[in-house]
Amino acid sequence: MLCGVPDLSVPLLDFEAAWSSARQVDGWLTEAQARMLYDSARAVAPGRVVEIGSHLGRSTIMLAASGAAVTAVDPFPGDWRYGRSDTEQRLRSHLAGAGVDTRVDVRVATSRTTRADWSEPVRLVYVDGKHDMWSCLDDLRWSRFLRVGDVVLVHDAFSSLGVTSAVLCDAAITDRHRYAGRTGSMARFEISRPALRDRLRVLRELPWFVRNLVVKVLLRLHLRPIARLLGHRDTADPY
C-alpha cells in the first residue's frame, strides 16, 4: 500500500499553541484529554499515528501538532447524527487553519477498509469511531500494527454503552492490551500481556460508567440541576 506522506518539515506546535487552535473546533475533547493525545503522539514522533474518527479535527490537530505523521480515517457519512455533507471540508479547513494540514493524510474510508490494505508500522492508535460494540472491537484490531510498549487510546471508553461493552469484552479475552488508566472517558491501553490485576482494573471503572449513564438519562429528561449534583456541569454528555 502506498501511504500518504505528510510533510514533516513543517515545524511542530507546542501544546499551548495547538490547544489554542483545537479548542476553537467543535468536538468532545477536554484539555486534559488533549494533553494525553499530544504527549502520547509526541513520544512516538515522527512515527505514524492512526486516528479512527476525526469529525471536525479537534483531536487531529493535537495529534499532528506533536510532530507525528497522522493518518486520519473517517468515512464522513452524511447520515451520521453529528455529521453534515461538508464535514470533511470543514475538517480540512480546521487543519489548515492550525497549520498542521501537511502533516495529516486524510483517508475518506472506513476503518476496516483502510486496515485491510495497510502494511506500515504504526506507533499509536486513537479510537473514536462508531460507538457500537462490534465497530469498536474491530477498530481495536489496528493494534496488530503496534509493537510492545506502544499505546492505544480509546475515547468514550466509560461513557458509551457500546464502547464500554467493547472494552469489557476485550479486557476479558485479550492477551495484547493492558489497561493503564483513563483521563475522563479516554482510556489508555499499552501493548503488553495483561495480568489479572490489569483486567480487574477495567471492572473497577464500572461505577463511574454507571454514573455517566445516569447523567445521560438526566440530561435527556432535562434534569440538569440533578446532573449537577453528580458533578456534571456540561450541557453535553460526559466525555
TrEMBL record:
GO biological process terms on file: methylation
Pfam families according to UniProt: Methyltransf_24
Transmembrane segments: none
Gene Ontology molecular function terms on file: methyltransferase activity
InterPro entries the UniProt entry points to: SAM-dependent_MTases_sf
Keywords: Methyltransferase, Transferase
The protein's name in its UniProt record: Class I SAM-dependent methyltransferase
